[in-house]
Specification:
Structural class: alpha/beta
Radius of gyration: 26 Å
Largest sheet: 10 strands, mixed
Amino acid sequence: MDLTELRQQIDGIDQELVRLFAQRMEVAAQIGDYKKEHGLPIFVPAREREKLKSVAELAPAELKNDTMALYSILFELSRSYQKKKNNPASPLYEEVTRAIENTPNLFPQSPMVACQGVEGAYSQIACEKIFKHPEILYFKNFEGVFQAIDQGLCQYGVLPIENSTAGSVNKVYDLMIRHNFSIVRTFRLKIDHDLLANPGAKLQDIKEVYSHEQAINQCQQYFAGLPGVKLIPVANTAAAAQMVASSGRTDVAAISSRACAQLYGLTRLAQSIQDKGNNRTRFICISKKLEIYPGADRTSVMMILPHQPGALYKVLARLYSLGINVTKLESRPIPEREFEFMFYFDLETSIYSQEFVQLLCELSELCEEFKYLGSYTEVI
């Protein structure tokens, strides 16, 4: 039998599979109608375990695991289809709908905004890109920014969340687990690190360099050529520039921005010393109140999944079935809960799409805890 004949056989089998799949989904929808009418839950774990076991027994030994994987996907699709047919309005979806209706069409122009660091920090630069004329309050650490939002001291906060070279800002992710907030916008800032020192300093005389640990990580290749220099982490890049300026020393330097050179009267010993030219940091803009501005096409959620095999796979399968792209997946350990993790997702989906509605109505049922962080536009 040649390849053409084998492909014809596959085509015939596929036609029958699609017909049976459609038939199965229709019966699943009828089961969903019955459960809704009688107040029964759509998801019955014991029934699914029993069904997986029975279909695995029908399969050849070498295909048992593959059969169970296939039917796990079928179960996810069936539940999704049942939800779609019944289209229940979840409390979360109603909350989101109210936020869309009550949020102004125009993004704020001159709000009070919390940033970590001091004048000249990259958070300040990002803040002034997000808002036209912000009033900025500075805090020593990321915790202070979250507390300013919690206590109503500031309407918004701007925080770095990941860098294209150094990766995620883990301290911010850990704080996101502990605080209640909403993301209203994100921004990707091009980062150029300069080596700044006091006037009269020479590169060959530099013994110590101060900066934020992320900035230090982003400039490893440059400092590999300066083996005698000690790299010292501090709170942020602008604070490093401020420290160098106030020291009056000519044997210390800071990794910081060009803006800080002008702000603190420093000399640029070297320019753009980061390892990669396309070095960008992504900032989130957070608020205490849920606000969803027109055109929002990204959504962020956090969830704690059951500590069992396939839990993350089920979430990803559901997102795949909805045609939603995952642009970020991050896991962070949950304090005081051994070997358990909070998963953070960034998703591409318009708030006006049916997929978004299904996402809010269905995803929480797969989790032990589910936290909707907001829907927003990302500015590049």
